Amino acid sequence: MNCLIFDIETIPDVDSGRRVYEINDAIADSDVAEIMFTKRREQSGEEFLALPFHRVVAISAVLRSGDQFNVWSLGTLDSDEKEIIKRFYDGIERFSPTLVSWNGSGFDLPVLHYRSMIHGISASRYWDTGEHDREFKWNNYLNRYHSRHTDLMDILAAYQQRAVTKLDIMATLLGFPGKMGMSGASVWDYYKSGKLKEIRDYCETDVLNTYLVYLRWRLIAGKLTESQFNDECDVVRSFLADQTQKHFKEFLKTWQTP
Predict the structure, then answer these.
(1) Model's pTM, two decimal places?
(2) How is domain 2-253 classified at the CATH fold level?
């Protein structure tokens, strides 16, 4: 198994908001964001911004390849959006992993498409549909029914929007930790408070939940035996037990608590 489970966290791109809505540079970022939310409510009835207006502040990943298992956030606390996104696509360019996400088709990947356009980030392997590698004609990252990207939310809902559920609910139902004191809706407030590390930590627990749900799906799809599923869960537990970071310790404790 060679797969990369990923998740992104975003905030309002106030620079784009200023440009599109012709907002004066003297207006504070927090006030620009409120204007953007208001404009969005007027357009759609909800505050959730159109995808091009989402600025990526974290991409976290689980890598499972051979005997290797790791969880981390791309870049550092000082990395800008362009560097973070470039690192994501560079990993695909180098390793061509199977991508796994929860709602990656509906949110994460389209956001990354728009933001890579803004920054001019090249990702030929990701965008290949057979022009450079014939194998990618039949199995690429972009086709909904190909397996190089597995969107668990879409698959479990049988591609029916009315049937989708949240990762937190699915993970909790399966006995995994789910959300632990934070949600995507609070990322902007955390960011304004200078808590980027906490955002990255939260994103890392999200990809851990996604990976564990992915393992359970592989079990019911006949891709893992029950023994193999349990072994893979033990790999995750062993990794977490060796970590010193607080969010990993809390994840393991919550997972093991009946």
Answers:
(1) 0.95
(2) Nucleotidyltransferase; domain 5 (3.30.420)
